[in-house]
Amino acid sequence: MEPRDPSLMELRGEAIGTITPFSSSEEVFQNQTLRPILKLQNDLFLEVFRNYAVKQKNVFFDLSPDKKMAYIENVIQRDIKFRNSLKGIVIGLFTVNEYREYIQNSSNLNKRMMNMLIERLKSQIQLFEQA
Questions:
Q1: Residue ranges of domains in the chain
Q2: I need a labelling partner for 88 at 20 to 30 A (CA). Which of 30, 51, 52, 129 fits?
Q3: For the segment 21-55, what is each residue's pLDDT rounded down to a tens digit?
Q4: Which among 27, 42, 24, 41 is positioned nearest to 92, based on CA atoms?
């Protein structure tokens, strides 16, 4: 069996975004770790959100596009259990060193992670159709 961390790095691919010598450690983590994981897990995030919306009595599917955008943002910010589930989908693909770095500044990195996920879901809103 191959070691976990190199396999994860290969699966995720290269960093996404610009990293310069002036980039903060949070920006580097965002572009090297968070963005590739969010891209890799995109289809899963879409399905997880679709399932969430169905379990919430399908209210989401009858909303106007603007209200759907607000719904996505509100749900991810306010439903702690759901947000923690989404975070777990991302954190599960961290290497051990990335996890060590993450726990040093988890609050700010969680904000970045959730904001990027919200924007990712909102940009694909047309893919959400009633199941």
A1: 28-126
A2: 129
A3: 999 999 999 999 999 999 999 999 999 999 999 99
A4: 41
Q: Which of 106, 118, 131, 99 is nearest to 45 (CA)?
A: 118
Six-digit token pair at 90? 């991302």
**Long-range interactions of 68-75: CB distance < 8 A, separation 24+:** 68/125, 68/128, 69/122, 69/125, 72/118, 72/121, 72/122, 72/125, 73/118, 73/122
Task: Give the pLDDT confidence score for residue 1 in this predicted structure.
Answer: 65
pTM: 0.92
**Interior/surface letters 12-46, b for 16+ CB within 10 angstroms, e for the rest:** beeebeeeeeeeeeeeebbbbbbbbbbeebeeebe
Contact 113/90 with Cβ under 8 angstroms?
Answer: yes
Burial of 86: CB neighbours in 10 Å, binned 0-12, 13-18, 19+: buried
pLDDT at 131 over 80: no
Structure-token pair, residue 52? 């969430």
Dihedral class, residue 17 (left if φ above 0, else alpha if ψ from -120 to 50, else beta) = left
